[in-house]
């Protein structure tokens, strides 16, 4: 990988770390690539590239001085999650995506990452094929469940109480399990960007003094729950109560729809949401690859 600053006049493909000044190009490729879905704004890209964290890895591919592709990943101790990989449609099928992926994997492996994962929307067969060709294995699915706020079944909070705080919560001592495998990797960088960009809140659910669950969200018309986690003991009860509490909060703020991501293997949690009138609206393939050093 090239860490050089000067892209001009280079007729070969260079892969280097992304800078804040690349944000606009990355955003334009994003818009051309993923029409209609996950439409993060330019501010999100700028915000992410400004975050000073060793967990965020962002690379761009530069051809003849022009940014033609990019990738963004979040690194944990020995695992990483690829959030984005996209190549300008005019330059696809030329090996640029594979090169970006290879350079990212090498960088992650050098920093101790043993397994890298990602998810691909079930409508994106091209990307699925691309990752399989690059050594990724399908490990499962993630379901996207959605409900209109008014349709969510009411019920008692049953001895639970909740509290909403602005921003995220750091350094929680209590162990809670996130509903998706990637949440533990995406939660921190996501929060760092969103806290600056828009209203971000955390709902904390307690029974007595014990934390039973939490959810991070921004109150938009369609409220994507960015991060949701429940206690190890009676997780299904905790999730149902957490969602009822979210319904109260969403109603108060005029939110119309709630969207939650859950690993396909967590049958109990999925059923809890179905019992509250959520519907499965989409699925994503979960893939991963074991990295080797050297
Ligand atoms: C997935 C993506 C990054 C691949 O980048 P790329 O530079 O085109 O990939 P490469 O040239 O290295 O690899 C080509 C392989 O990808 C797939 N592929 C890429 N572009 C394709 C196209 N236009 N039509 C069909 N298959 C395509 C094929 O499997 C192809 O293999 P082949 O050349 O042996 O047929 C690119 O298609 C893209 O930006 N897609 C939109 C964004 C996206 O879906 N990202 C992944 C989800 S996070």
Structure description:
The protein is of the alpha+beta class and 294 residues long. The chain folds into 2 domains: 13-113, Gcn5-related N-acetyltransferase (GNAT) (Aminopeptidase, 3-Layer(aba) Sandwich), CATH 3.40.630; 144-285, 3-Layer(aba) Sandwich (Aminopeptidase). Helix content is 29%, strand content 34%. The protein has 7 helices and 14 strands. The protein has a 9-stranded mixed beta sheet. Strands 7-9-10-12-8 form a 5-stranded antiparallel beta sheet. β9 and β10 form a beta hairpin. α1 (23-33) packs across α2, α2 (42-50) crosses α5 (183-197) and α6 packs across α7. The longest helix has 18 residues, at 235-252. The chain binds coenzyme A (COA). Residues 33-34, 84-87, 92-98, 120, 124, 126-127, 129-130, 133 line the site of coenzyme A (COA).
Average pLDDT for all residues: 89
Helix content: 25-40%
> CATH class of the largest domain, please?
Alpha Beta
Biggest beta-sheet profile: 9 strands, mixed
CATH architecture of the largest domain: 3-Layer(aba) Sandwich
Q: Could you give me the name of the CATH homologous superfamily of the largest domain?
A: Gcn5-related N-acetyltransferase (GNAT)
Task: Indicate the structural class.
Answer: alpha+beta
Query: How much strand content do the residues show?
Result: 25-35%
Question: In total, how many beta strands?
Answer: 14
């Amino acid at each position: 990988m090239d860490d050089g600053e000067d892209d001009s006049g280079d007729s070969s493909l260079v892969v280097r770390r992304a800078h804040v000044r690349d944000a606009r190009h990355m955003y334009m490729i994003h818009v051309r690539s993923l029409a209609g879905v996950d439409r993060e704004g330019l501010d999100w890209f700028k915000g992410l590239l400004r975050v000073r964290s060793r967990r965020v890895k962002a690379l761009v591919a530069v051809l003849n001085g022009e940014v033609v592709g990019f990738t963004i990943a979040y690194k944990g101790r020995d695992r990483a999650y690829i959030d984005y990989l996209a190549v300008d449609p005019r330059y696809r099928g030329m090996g640029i995506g594979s090169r970006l992926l290879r350079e990212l994997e090498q960088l992650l492996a050098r920093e101790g990452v043993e397994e890298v994962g990602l998810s691909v929307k079930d409508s994106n067969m091209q990307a699925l094929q691309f990752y399989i060709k690059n050594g990724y294995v399908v490990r499962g699915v993630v379901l996207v469940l959605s409900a209109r706020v008014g349709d969510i079944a009411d019920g008692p909070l049953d001895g639970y109480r909740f509290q909403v705080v602005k921003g995220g919560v750091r350094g929680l001592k209590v162990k809670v399990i996130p509903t998706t495998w990637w949440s533990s990797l995406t939660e921190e960088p996501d929060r760092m960007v969103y806290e600056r960009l828009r209203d971000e809140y955390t709902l904390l659910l307690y029974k007595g003094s014990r934390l039973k669950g939490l959810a991070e969200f921004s109150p938009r018309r369609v409220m994507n729950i960015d991060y949701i986690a429940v206690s190890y003991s009676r997780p299904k009860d905790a999730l149902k109560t957490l969602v009822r509490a979210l319904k109260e909060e969403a109603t108060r703020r005029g939110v119309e729809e709630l969207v939650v991501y859950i690993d396909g293997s967590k049958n109990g949690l999925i059923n809890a949401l179905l019992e509250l009138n959520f519907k499965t609206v989409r699925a994503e393939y979960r893939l991963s690859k074991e990295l080797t050093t050297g």
